[in-house]
Amino acid sequence: MTQQLPPAGPAAEPAVQDVAPAAVSVASQWRLMWWRFRKHKLALAGLVVTATLYLVAVFAGFLAPYDSSHLDPEYTYAPPQRLHVVDTSDGWDWGLYVNGYTAEQDPETLEIRFEVDEDTKVPVELFARGPSYTLFGLIETNIHVIGPADPDGPPMYLLGADRLGRDQLSRIIHGTRVSMSVGLVGVAVAFVLGVTLGGVSGYLGGKVDTVIQRMVEFFMSLPTLPLWLGLAAAVPTDWGPLARYFMITVVLSFVAWTSLAREVRGRFLSLREEDFVMAAKLDGVGRRAIIFSHMLPSFTSHLIATLTLSIPAMILAETALSFLGLGLQPPVVSWGVLLQEAQQIRVISTAPWLLLPGLAVVVAVLSLNFMGDGLRDAADPYRR
Amino acid sequence: MTAHRDDTGRGVGVVAGLDSPAPADPRQVGRELAASGTILRIDGLRTYFHTDESVVKAVDGVSLDVPRGRTICVVGESGCGKSITARSVLGLVDAPGRIEAGHLWWHPDPEAPAVDLAALDPHGAEIRQVRGGQIGMVFQEPMASLSPMYSIGDQLVQAIRLHRPVSAAEAKELAIAQLARVGIPQPERRFDSYSFQLSGGMCQRVMIAIALSCDPALLIADEPTTALDVTTQARILDLIAQLQDETGMSVMFITHDLGVVAEIADDVTVMYLGTVAEQGSVTDIFDRPEHPYTRALLESVPTLGQARSERLAAIAGMVPSPDDRPTGCPFHTRCPSVMPGLCDVTPPAVRQVGDRHEAACHLHDPDVERPPVPAAPAPNTATLTGAEDRSPAVAPDEAEPLLSVRGLRMTFPVKKGFFGRTVGHVQAVDDVDLDIRPGETLGLVGESGCGKTTLGRCIARALDPTAGTIRYRDPRGGAEVDLAQLEANQLRPYREHIRVIFQDPFGSLNPRKTLLQLIAEPLRHIRSERVDSSIEDRVAAMLRRVGLRPEFMRRYPHAFSGGQRQRINIARALITNPRLVIADEAVSALDVSIRAQILNLLSDLQDEYQLTYLFISHDLSVVEHICDRVAVMYLGRIVEQAETEEVFQRPGHPYTEALLSAVPVPDPHLRGAGRRIRLADDLPDPANPPSGCPFHTRCPHRRAERCADERPLLQLSPTGSSEHLAACHYADELSLAGVADPLS
């Protein structure tokens, strides 16, 4: 969509007047949007974080030291370890290592307490060999960006371990995949529903409009949590994790399309009265072409911004559902599923790192929101 | 980029009276102002807007005096800094703008020292005391200036109690008296009305009532009548003049309409690009304009009574953007008498050219040798076709009409309630008969809401008329068809014969399409042509023809100014080689100089492409200039129809007479010369039109019998030619006044 700058022609023809002599450079709508977006620092930061999160989701297997089901019952609730880059125990030297643990059982409560043992060193290396995984579902490999040098030696828990001794860092990274994509799929379904129904409602008007609007109002009046509960309960329990995952996204999008439909309808109603739509009609443009080539493009940028803003809502909804045990179920890993572990106050008091998936949710939602706000401001063609 | 141009050099000349060293003593200034009878002296005012990219010098060294008890008009095209000057006086400049330099000496009391408004805190108590209390302001959009959440009475009471220590009950009495004073009927009842229940004219009266509620010494009116109909405008101007007589206040009136200036001004300041080009008394400005810009402005205005074949002298180009000011004289890029090497280098000084008459132009510089050719206004476009008489190619009487409308009705249902029950009908177009002859320009005039636009859209079949026929015969062969009966598919071939130019140059072009896509669209859709290089060539040729560079083809409309966009609209209308072009207020949104360019372009194109125009406008002087015949509409009906000269010289309907007398004539010597007919503000509710003659509720010639109960039909008027139709019972008995012929 870049525009070629027309060659600065020679002197204008004598008949040509009313022309500013200074060359007006041409920028496409998207480029103008980008220029405006760039000025919004917070949105730019949001964009960077969001992009990083999606990169993490794509390269989850490579970035996580372990796979999501790796467990080590000897290390339940092991605390986070500090990653040492410089080895100062014996003079000064480069060296990547973490300290090992010493486990100690409380004689009264039988609780196992881990202390970081400054003396033992678990060597860590970049591009370490570990459990094998397939990158992009194609390339089978076992190289991880970081991991213990000896795969069979003592484990490395940079963000601590949970009740089964599973690595929290690996699970958060693997959870990014589901949590960040559940939003996309759900939003895509909601988008198609919303634009179609809203567009039909706004352009046709009359009885169709009334029916669709009553439907929207009905869906909006339903309390969301019981609706999710009901729909999630309707998903058969014996379905596999993938089918279940898909059903959850559909459940979420069924509630999410309503506000988009309203917005699209409103836009269509106001655009229908615009002079340029009348002009296109008089130019012989058919009804479909008016909708798709005149009306929709004039608010695509706005739609994109709305979409960006609705992804975080989806992420939050998935997290809430899974937290309640109604959404995704283990062994699927999502941030909501991980947070299930943090349901008990006692667990949180002994192992606060189990709340870290919540932090991931906060970061993801905030960055998407900032980005969406920036996009919305940048997409408005009538602002300077 | 332009921000750092030589600032000191400009300052020397343009700012008159800055020779006296800066920190002036308010008492001294007060004595000076009292001696010269000045209530407000704007002295070297500079208001700049600081944006990220550049500094926009909206007002760049303006000096003017507002005389006590008189009216000063500030004129200029849009973007010349008129409004910012007025807002600066009141401290109403919004961020990122601020007053950079200059003084605003405010001196309401001849005994007291003057106050420099520019030095006051724009949010402080002092300026708020002046704003609204001593200086009242009226804005352009009366509807938008009144809050819809409060009744007009509440807003008036609030304004009164802000500045006067009165109780609520007293304030209400004062408010009602104030409403009565500005001519609002039944003020006690209107007190509780809301702005959306009143017409635009009524709202503007309320705004004036609010502005005058504390008896200000100065009223600043920023285009107060631009959004109003010509009949309402005349009454508002009368009201302001009458109130000025009563209170002796001064008026600073900002407008772009030279007719209004001639009507009301005592003094005139012509502004161009943030500087004063010329100022003087109204007779000086109109009779002896000294600045080329003033001269060009005056020549580009079509005047009532001016011979029709004359071309308008348009000013070349357009007002440059204020953040890209030309060096030297700001007007040199468009000036017909520019002196290269001087005008584009040195800004001209303000010079006295007469008693209280000064202009900022190098032509008056005694040291400058005048160019051998005197400042003849360059008819820059006249070379295209010459100025031969544009009489229609076909003799009008014998030719068969191109389009013949019979009994056309357009009814809109009024819906109400939850189920959208139809509770009434608005007859937007009510039984209209109209013939449009090939090659002519037919003007359609009337106040807003009279159904002109709806009629135009019915003819273009953008709307489906409720009843009636629209018979169209292609002059280049083809059978007669009734456009009103055709389905959308059958209509398609005729879409290229009848094209529309819209009023709003901004809303009518899809901002997401390039010029190529926009202009080629009718070719692609009506004729199903493929986009290939031949289409591009034709679009390029058409762009060149309407005065745009073909290289602009791949740009988006937002890169163009209003005038250029209207050229794009014209190109889009003409690309299909149409027979009839409906120009719906096509020049109403444009500045005078641009309007003249577009009007000239339209008439050139008419000759070139043998076009027929239906020219819908509320501007009678434009209609008289461009049209061969005129139809006058009132409440959905045509009340008069005749050749232009007939209508303007010997009107056959009282409504036409009233319209004509309301048009301000840009000649101060004709002020008050004609018979003034003032119509009541309100158009009757079109959902419930008056019985009998629809005009009888406002007609000054109304008679007891017939008018109220018998509906007059369009019939031949005995006043003139056989072509003159008027719908008035007493057309043959009344002697109605037309436009005074300036030659006689």
From TrEMBL, chain A:
It is found in: Cell membrane; Membrane. The chain crosses the membrane at residues 42-64, 184-206, 218-236, 242-260, 296-315, 351-371. GO terms for biological process: transmembrane transport. It holds the Pfam family OppC_N. InterPro entries: MetI-like, MetI-like_sf, OppC_N. It is a multi-pass membrane protein. Keywords: Membrane, Transmembrane, Transmembrane helix, Transport. One of its GO terms (cellular component) is plasma membrane. Residues 176-372 form the ABC transmembrane type-1 domain. SUPFAM superfamilies: MetI-like. Belongs to the binding-protein-dependent transport system permease family. This is ABC transporter permease. It comes from Jiangella asiatica. The lineage of its organism: Bacteria, Bacillati, Actinomycetota, Actinomycetes, Jiangellales.
Automatic annotation (TrEMBL), chain B:
Keywords: ATP-binding, Nucleotide-binding, Transport. Residues 1-28, 364-394 are annotated as: Disordered. Coiled coil: none annotated. GO terms for molecular function: ATP binding; ATP hydrolysis activity. One of its GO terms (biological process) is peptide transport. Pfam families: ABC_tran (PF00005), oligo_HPY (PF08352). Residues 40-298, 408-660 form the ABC transporter domain. InterPro entries: AAA+_ATPase, ABC_transp_ATP-bind, ABC_transporter-like_ATP-bd, ABC_transporter-like_CS, Oligopep_ABC_C, P-loop_NTPase. Belongs to the ABC transporter superfamily. This is ABC transporter ATP-binding protein. It comes from Jiangella asiatica.
